[in-house]
Amino acid sequence: MIAEIGHFALLLALALALLQSVAPIWGARRGDAALMGLARPLAGGQFLFIAAAFAMLIALYVRSDYSVANVWQNSHADKPLLYKISGTWGNHEGSMLLWVMILAFFGSLVALFGSNLPVRLRAIVLAVQAWVASAFLVFILATSNPFLRLDPAPGEGQGLNPILQDFALAIHPPLLYAGYVGFSVAFAFAIAALIEGRVDAAWARWVRPWTLLAWAFLTAGIAMGSWWAYYELGWGGWWFWDPVENASFMPWIAGTALLHSAIVMEKREALKIWTILLAILTFSLSLLGTFLVRSGVLTSVHAFATDPARGVFILVLLMLFVGGALSLFAWRAPLLRQGGLFAPVSREGALVINNLFLTTAALTVFVGTLYPLALEALTGQKISVGAPFFNMTFGPLMIPLLALVPFGPMLAWKRGDFLGVAQRLFAVAFAALAVAALFAWLRWGGPVLAPFGIGLAAWVMLGALFELAWRVGAGRAPLGQVVRRLGGLPRSAYGTMLAHFGLGVVVLGIVSVSAWRTEVITVMKPGDSVAVAGRTVTFEGVVPEQGPNYTQTAGVFTAREGDRTVAVLKSAKRVYTVRKQPTTEAGIRSFLSGDLYVVLGDDAEGGAYTVRIYDNPFVTMIWWGAVIMMIGAIFSLSDRRLRVGAPRRAAPAAARVQPAE
Amino acid sequence: MLARLLIALCLALSAGPALAVQPDEVLADPALEARARTISAELRCLVCQNQSIDDSNAPLARDLRVLVRERLSAGASDSEVLSFVVERYGEFVLLKPRFALHTLLLWLVPPLALIAGGLVLWRKRALPAGAAAELSEAEKERLKKLVADD
Fold it and tell me: Using a CB-CB distance cutoff of 8 angstroms, which residues of chain B are in contact with residue A602?
């Protein structure tokens, strides 16, 4: 019964979404306020029905109802409750339902918080949201229905892949999707602007919070995935330039560019056409990511060809939305008037350079990810494009970008004084060089370029702090005044500072762990000790352990600095009882200077084990940096002008189209 | 996520959760071993999903790692080792494709995009800056008139 309710709720949601696709836009064309007014309740209703369907699916998982094929394939009665619930989206059908639910959620948020939007704009935006929702609801109902029954019902489920039974991975997909799908709002606004043939600074102000929100979620999702890979896959890698990672990274880069260009549009009415294009591209890359991950095309072109139903469906949707949006752009964009002139050296100019590098970076990842697929499809030649390619092409693009980050916020709008800013930043450059020299001295003998990388990280971090200090006149004005000014700064100023500072922290982590990682691979008997980066690690022995749905052999290690025990670590070889699948649990202890990372390997002769021990200096900075960036986004999001600035502009426009009320 | 799953599956299907380079493979000479690791990171584990042989514990990856170390010990240069492996396993094994006709676009698109974008900006640059700084002929005339009227 529950499954049927869920299925029915999805059908109703589709009906509402179809109505929402047509009625508001029809109303906007005819100036019919009643029809346009339908958009808000429809968006809310659509979300409620999808959420109900999703809740039904969760209920089926919690009750372990194996008469439902999806539950039977992906769950097991012995699983802890948390992983029964997260199993709901740990598979294709469930994750597509989550995807469309988040889409509807964003739509309903626009309906809920969009009182300050002009009625026509809001109606069109919600209609465009509904186009995407309808398409994906049809996709789910036609090819990926999670509510299909099995008859007769099997007795026991097949279990969730053990690698997915992990807390970080339980919340990774919802975060990632909230990011991916959140960009649909910016997309809908872009399409609405093109349909209206009119766009202004207020538009940028309305789009900005949605983009920030999506960007913050995507940042969290990507960081979470990277952290999971780091501790779960057992060799301490944190980024693999894997096509699936790239699929989420491309919209992130484009979204970052969009955030920056929207600032120019909001403050100076410039870069309008470019910002609209970026909004379209960002969500297109999200759709592309969904296609890459969900169609199976990445596993191999042939796997895609043998079971093409889902892949072809998403591909058609992809071409429809991307092609349609770009055609609309080509047709309507020339109507949009450009405003705000600026000199090359200016805040706008700096943001344009930012966009140039970020767009090229996104394109690089795009080409690297899709080239092997395209080449094989066209000529049959098989090549691999992996981490070494991306490190060689993406890395160099980031260096000038990072070097320019501290300049951007310091330059004046319209016409900046590059030399003046360079002079002011002289102290920061000096401090960054000092940090680089310090690292070169502390870590003598490492890669030659590494201290420069650290210097670059310090330059970005210190530059962010300096910009804020300079804005409030620290060192020039009396202290009381500085504190008062700090309190008076808009939150977006703190947002910029935090986001740029966090970026520097990420770079610090990446450079340190790439350059100065220590690895010891050895065979140890219980009682053996080995020296790793200034610590002594002793293998104490192994103990068998029993978990709720697995058994494991846990190796116990103690780490000492001199005579002092600083950590006891446990690394386990785990076998999940249902799928008989072995996994490795690394033993990790974070110190201020970095992580000690121990992995128990195979047993050798005489009670000995292969053991891998890593010292990963500053590796956690990669994820802390991402957290800081995200906090920056939240600060910007809470900025006063995004909450109260817009309605004043919107009021007259809203009044004009609502004479009937 | 899916590919990480496949990586994990690849680990699971091969000889258990033990990982990559084994202690018995490591070369005595640290310089040679370091070269072996660098080369290994550029070679694809052919039975895995986007994993280098340095990261994979599949038996085939192990064979390749041993092969790389044998060639290096025999005195081959890095590029000779790579060519040797490519001859045996095809170009698919390289994680960084060679620059050739069929990879032309792959390698050239990023730098060309940057240059093209830069050029577009450079051309656009003169326009707004000039427009803001200089008056048109008509404006100059008007200014002259205004000044003369004073």
Answer: 15-16, 18
Residue A238 belongs to domain spanning: 166-332+348-410
Whether residue A70 contacts residue A152, with contact meaning beta carbons closer than 8 Å, is answered with: no
Domain segments of chain B as ranges:
2-98, 102-149
Q: Are A530 and A558 in contact (CB under 8 A)?
A: no
Environment class of residue A29 by beta-carbon count within 10 Å: exposed (0-12), middle (13-18) or buried (19+)?
middle
Which of A163, A164, A521 is the closest to B26 by Cβ?
A521
Nearest Cα of chain B lies from the Cα of A44 at a distance, in angstroms, of: 31
Same structural domain for residues A152 and A192? no
Strand partners, A567: A559
Which of 38-77 (B) contact A at CB < 8 A? 41-42, 44, 49-52, 55
What's the pTM value of the predicted model, to 2 decimals? 0.90
Mean pLDDT in residue range A473-483: 84
Residue-wise pLDDT tens digits, A210-239: 999 999 999 999 999 999 889 887 777 888
Mean pLDDT value across chain A: 88
CB pairs under 8 A between A and B: 165
Average pLDDT of the residues in A45-52: 96
Residues A354 and A315 in one domain: yes
- Residue B93: list chain A partners with CB under 8 A: 384
Q: Is B141 on the interface with A (CB under 8 A)?
A: no
Distance CA A561, CA A545 (A): 29
Number of domains composing chain A: 3
pLDDT in tens, B5-47: 444 444 444 333 345 778 778 888 888 888 998 899 899 988 8
Verify that A260 and A385 share a domain, yes or no. yes
Is CATH 3.30.479.30 the right assignment for the domain spanning B2-98? Answer: no
Q: Which residues 94-123 of chain B have a CB within 8 Å of chain A?
A: 94-97, 102-103, 105-107, 109-110, 113-114, 117-118, 121
**Alpha carbon distance A286, A467 (integer Å):** 33
Whether residue A108 has pLDDT greater than 90: yes
